[in-house]
Amino acid sequence: MDKITPFLMFQDGQAEDAMNYYTSLIEESKITSIVRYGANESGTEGTVKNATFSLKGQEFMCIDSNLKHQFSFTPSFSIYVTCHSEEELNHLYENLIRDGQALMPLDDYGFSKKFGWLNDRFGVSWQLNLPK
Fold it and tell me: Cα dist. 86→26, 90, 108, 125 in Å?
């Protein structure tokens, strides 16, 4: 076994938008590869056949599914981010919640200084934590 990598499956051609959005919000993040569907392939031409990106050193893989599924992302799997400052946490939360949904609004829930859990506009779940 070489490594274990979280894998995100997007629908409706959202993978590239999501990667660009996430890497713009988190420092030391980048898209490392994109392979697109070409003409006469099973996916919509130009959408993401397979891509990798990293967020603060954590590698992810993603695709644009060429099939419609009866499922999407679920909050039972989330991207957990430990922030270094309240400003960093607020910045991420304010941007990720835009057109998304709060699961646990930013607050002090007793286990950290400040915590928030949300689904972003792509349906991906994030937990943002500022430790005590």
Answer: 15, 6, 12, 20
CA separation for the pair 18, 79 (Å, rounded): 14
In tens, the pLDDT along 79-131 reads 999 999 999 999 999 999 999 999 999 999 999 999 999 999 999 999 999 99
**DSSP string covering 20-33:** HHHHHHSSS-EEEE
DSSP 38-86: -TTSSSPTTSEEEEEEEETTEEEEEEE-SS--S----TTSEEEEE-SSH
At 128, is the secondary structure helix, strand, or coil? strand
What tokens does 11 get? 């629908």
Question: Which residues on neighbouring strands pair with residue 78, listed in sequence order?
Answer: 125
Q: How far apart are CA 18 and CA 55, in angstroms?
A: 12
DSSP-derived 3-state class of residue 108: coil
